[in-house]
Amino acid sequence: MRRLFSAIGTLLAWLFIIALLAICLGPIVGSSIYLDRHGIVGPGKVVSKSERISPESRSNSWLRRLSITVSYEPRDQSWSNVALIDVDVASYDQLRPGSNVRVRYQPTKWLRQFPFVAARLEQQSTLSFLSVFAYNDWQPLVLGLLAIAFGMSALGSRSLPARLVLVTLFGVTIVALVIFSIRPAIFFDRGAPRLTATATVRNIDHLTIEPGNTDVSSQELLQPFDRVELEFDPGDSGGMVVAVDEIDAGSWPGLQVGASVPVTYPQGQPRAAQIAGVTRNHRVINWLMLPLDFGIYIGGIALILAIGAVARIFTRRRAQRSSQGQSGP
To answer: Do residues 231 and 204 lie in contact, with contact meaning Cβ atoms separated by under 8 Å?
Structure first.
């Protein structure tokens, strides 16, 4: 009976989560799918384009947003509309202000009032539209969620073979999580030929505490680092591009916005450019905070248990002495 009630409780919890997501995301997703199925395709023209980097305050990640502003005239009105459309890297580099494009827009005026689903390029769909949003470090996030899922499943499994498989998957996921978090050069930089260029520093974020936590005293990074936005023209007729490099604080003395710095990047990947002659040890060093914090927590628990054990021993001996004194002559 307990298992039945537990299963019903779990089912109701999942139904509640699904219903909450449907209420929050349903109108946007529904409008986007409606645009896919019933949108009207017409001519448009690129007015401008922009490339922005948005830091994620709760993690080490950041979001690159490539967008174009497109002017188009719906067939049910005599004036032009302007839509901000997010695009992928290939489309962004290919298009220029003044480029002619095909735009798919909502068939009714009131739906065109919603900025994210008013219009998009003809070749885009709901899935491709969502795929243009990507954190630079999405792999650790996915691996972390998988590790939690495998670990919780292993704890709840009553079958020994299944538990062994889940524990193995948990261990493999943790190893992959560490590799993708610290990104050792042996796996991610195998000495492939790199091109050189000169970039201008567009922005610098100096990070000294663990992102996502305002407790400065307890979350100071072991190795502060700078997140540097770089802008340069790789010379492949793609125009200016923005790269993001995270370097150890102080490894480039006097680094400031507007400065020119030498960069290197893999051929065909200018947005992967890195400043030459700096160090990037902060990933490995700051990862030491995790086992350090874990050790502190374990040590605190062990200390509490030890104090409790000593207190129990002291209480037991005191009770024994008291009972011996009462039973004496």
So the answer is: no
- What values do phi and psi take at 192, rounded to 5? -65, 150
Determine how β-strand 40-55 pairs with β-strand 220-232. unpaired
> CA dist 143 to 14, 108, 146, 181, 310, Å?
22, 42, 5, 10, 41
Query: What percentage of the chain exceeds 70 in pLDDT?
Result: 74
Beta strand pairing call for 260-266 and 194-209:
antiparallel
Amino acid 130: pLDDT: 65
Residue with the two structure tokens 């248990």: 305
Residue 138: CB partners within 8 Å, gap ≥ 6?
A: 61
> What are the residues whose beta carbons fall under 8 Å from the beta carbon of 252, sequence distance 6 or more?
261, 275, 277, 278
Interatomic CA distance for residues 329 and 319, integer angstroms:
18
Please list the residues that pair with 67 across neighbouring strands: 50, 86
Query: Closest Cα to residue 52, out of 205, 246, 242, 232?
Result: 242
Nearest to 275 by CA among 229, 224, 206: 229
Burial class (CB in 10 A: 0-12, 13-18, 19+), 201: buried
The pLDDT tens digits of the residues spanning 99-131 come to 999 999 999 888 888 877 889 999 988 887 666
Whole-model pTM above 0.85? no
Q: What does 66-96 look like in DSSP terms, one character per residue?
A: EEEEEEE--TTSSS-EEEEEE--HHHHHH--
